[in-house]
């Protein structure tokens, strides 16, 4: 019989991080051959809404990785995923509630106000603990690594979208709305393959991490298995090199890995080839309101289109877009001194989000169109992919 989470104590699991949909813990209990070196990923639900997602999401994530992602990304750059049951029905909810109570003091206020652990889920995902060990692990959420092809853009949006990348335009909109953003970070620098530009990207991420007091989710730092906040940055010094300045110590350690790993090139290529139209071009060819959940992407759909998209190929092309969105929203864990880079958070996106993405795209571009031309950011796409 396979072990269940209720074979452990909730206090054996330490809160490490969370995103919009999942919350992650690492095992720190007594020696256990099944749980040692693992991270636990649990789904969250909104406090003010009923969780309407279908049961079996964890199984879908595992099958999605086996049947789709492993055909696109080398296995050494993917985490190990394993399904685990929470426990017998009468114990599982109580165990999850106890775990939720343990982690609540460590969660950010804005997270606690909006969502919580889904305590009625029957299963969870175990993954490789990528932030453990005696070195440093950094989680980077790179976002969009390319400028769109001008072919399918309108005359009004073409000069805007082909000069300023989606991330930088979205940051402008978020800043207008009063949100904290990585204003000095451009994903095209990170994906460039150029040492000086990658360092510029890391500096921008670091500065935003400091200025936001660690709130931004594009950059997280783990030292010897524990997530640190900016005021603890001195703990970086002496772990992987002898550089006395924490920022310089970290960027100097990360640079060789980011320059040598094929992960960023692969990620940028997949983003671009699976989104050949841009959501604007897709909307001009397809009736997005008519695309339903039964058109979810398959392994075959994951391959780049063999010819320029047309009205006839619209259904298949629309299935590429959610897969591209998966690669635009994932994170990479860089470990030093191990020198490894691993992609995480590669869950499938629902094709039903296409209409939402199209509305957001229009909002982002409309906001940026109000920026005087001379003040618009010029994002340079050199194409390391």
UniProtKB/TrEMBL annotation:
Domain observations: The EXKPK motif is conserved in inositol-pentakisphosphate 2-kinases of both family 1 and 2.
Superkingdom field: Eukaryota
Reaction(s) this enzyme catalyzes, per UniProt: 1D-myo-inositol 1,3,4,5,6-pentakisphosphate + ATP = 1D-myo-inositol hexakisphosphate + ADP + H(+)
Pfam families reported for this sequence: Ins_P5_2-kin
Key word ATP-binding present: yes
Region (Disordered): 298-320
Keywords recorded for this protein, A-Z: ATP-binding, Kinase, Nucleotide-binding, Transferase
Gene Ontology CC: one annotated term: nucleus
Parts forming coiled coils: none
GO MF annotation, one: ATP binding
Lineage: Eukaryota, Fungi, Dikarya, Basidiomycota, Agaricomycotina
Function statement: Phosphorylates Ins(1,3,4,5,6)P5 at position 2 to form Ins(1,2,3,4,5,6)P6 (InsP6 or phytate).
Bias kind Polar residues: ranges: 310-320
Name recorded for this polypeptide: Inositol-pentakisphosphate 2-kinase
Class of this enzyme: transferase
Example GO biological process: inositol phosphate biosynthetic process
EC number(s) stated in the UniProt entry for this protein: 2.7.1.158
């Amino acid at each position: 019989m396979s072990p269940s989470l209720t074979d452990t104590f909730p206090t054996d699991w330490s809160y490490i991080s969370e995103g919009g949909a999942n919350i992650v813990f690492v095992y720190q209990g007594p020696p256990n051959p099944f749980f040692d070196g693992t991270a636990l990923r649990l789904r969250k639900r909104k406090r003010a809404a009923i969780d309407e997602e279908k049961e079996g999401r964890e199984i879908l994530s595992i099958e999605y990785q086996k049947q789709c992602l492993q055909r696109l990304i080398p296995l050494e750059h993917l985490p190990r995923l394993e399904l685990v049951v929470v426990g017998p029905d009468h114990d599982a909810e109580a165990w999850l509630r106890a775990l939720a109570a343990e982690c609540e003091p460590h969660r950010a206020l804005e997270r606690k106000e909006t969502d919580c652990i889904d305590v009625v889920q029957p299963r969870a995902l175990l993954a490789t603990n990528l932030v453990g060990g005696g070195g440093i692990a950094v989680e980077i959420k790179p976002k969009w690594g390319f400028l769109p092809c001008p072919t399918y853009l309108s005359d009004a949006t073409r000069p805007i979208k082909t000069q300023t990348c989606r991330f930088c335009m979205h940051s402008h909109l978020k800043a207008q709305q009063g949100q904290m953003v990585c204003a000095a970070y451009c994903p095209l620098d990170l994906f460039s393959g150029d040492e000086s530009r990658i360092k510029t990207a890391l500096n921008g991420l670091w500065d935003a991490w400091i200025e936001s007091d660690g709130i931004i989710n594009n950059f997280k730092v783990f030292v010897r298995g524990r997530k640190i906040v900016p005021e603890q940055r001195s703990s970086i010094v002496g772990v992987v090199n002898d550089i006395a300045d924490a920022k310089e110590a970290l960027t100097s350690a990360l640079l060789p890995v980011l320059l040598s790993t094929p992960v960023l090139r692969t990620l940028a290529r997949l983003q671009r080839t699976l989104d050949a139209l841009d959501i604007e071009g897709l909307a001009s060819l397809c009736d997005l309101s008519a695309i339903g959940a039964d058109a979810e992407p398959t392994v075959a759909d994951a391959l780049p289109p063999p010819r320029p998209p047309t009205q006839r190929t619209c259904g298949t092309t629309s299935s590429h877009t959610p897969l591209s969105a998966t690669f635009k929203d994932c994170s990479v864990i860089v470990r030093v001194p191990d020198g490894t880079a691993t992609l995480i958070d590669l869950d499938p996106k629902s094709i039903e989000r296409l209409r939402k993405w199209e509305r957001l795209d229009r909002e982002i571009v409309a906001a940026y169109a109000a920026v005087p031309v001379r003040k618009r950011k010029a994002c340079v796409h050199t194409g390391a992919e």
